[in-house]
Each structure stands twice: as C-alpha cells, then as structure tokens.
Design a protein that fits this description.
Keywords: Membrane, Transmembrane, Transmembrane helix. This protein has 2 helices and 4 strands. By secondary structure, it is an alpha+beta fold. A hairpin with a 2-residue loop joins strand 3 and strand 4. It is extended.
Length: about 90
Amino acid sequence: MSLPKFLILAAVILLSSFGVFGVLYVFDPANLREKSEPVTVAKNIAPTFIPENLRWTEAASSVLWEPRDSGEVFVFQNKMWLMGGLNGNKKVG
C-alpha cells in the first residue's frame, strides 16, 4: 500500500473512532441510512489486563517528536500503530 493511501486510511480510522474513559466509540455510517436498535453492553466486564503488571520497554532512545499522551491505537496489516496525541502544551502532535 502506498503512503498516501495509508495516510488516508489512518485518517479515516482516527476520525471514525475515539476513546473516552476506557470506552471505545466507533462511528458507523451504516447506522445513518436506517434506524437501528441501541446496542446493549454488559456492565460487569472484567479488566483484560492488570495495570500493576505492565512493563514498558524503550523502543528508541532518540525520536523526532516530543513525549505525548491521548494518542489513538489501531491494528493495520497485523501491526499495532500509535498515532496522534497531545504534547505537554495540550496541542495536537
């Protein structure tokens, strides 16, 4: 896949989903065409990980961007991608 097509795909994915308080919201254009029933979500879902057991590994000691948070993560071609986020000044990186 060429880089421009990949960037368009990444933009579509980032603009069609977002996370708030651990909940992933996904925009589904199919729901705009016809009335659909609300989706019921289980309230007592056990965590899929234990934060105390997280171990971070530094992948690179020198990068071209500032540290940031609130980025979006998605899977594309069997790889996990992290894009966007806010830097320390609350500006989009």
